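User: What would this chain look like folded?
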Amino acid sequence: MILAKVIGTVVSTRKEESVRGLKFLMVRPVDLDGNETGSIVVAADAVGAGPGEMILYATGSSARQTIMTDRRPCDAVIMAIVDNWEVGGEIKYKKDALH
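Assistant: Here's the prediction, encoded as structure tokens.
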């Protein structure tokens, strides 16, 4: 799984029938300090994440192993909303009250 931040939403009124009902979000990976790095990924949201939240997402065949994405053509899925993370005993990120 990859740490990332939700940076936006994707709306599609016309789509393949097998992905109807999925919510798509734009996410960008972050480093251990929470700084955005890497390329933007569009991921199906399996947990109700929203803009600004830190999340964990999976790609490839792992993305099709959630209840929501089972047997669907999905290459990335948000699997968790992060409350906090710590590195070497130091809290690097803690979800604020706004999320």
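The chain has one domain: 2-86. If you want, I can go into more detail on any region.
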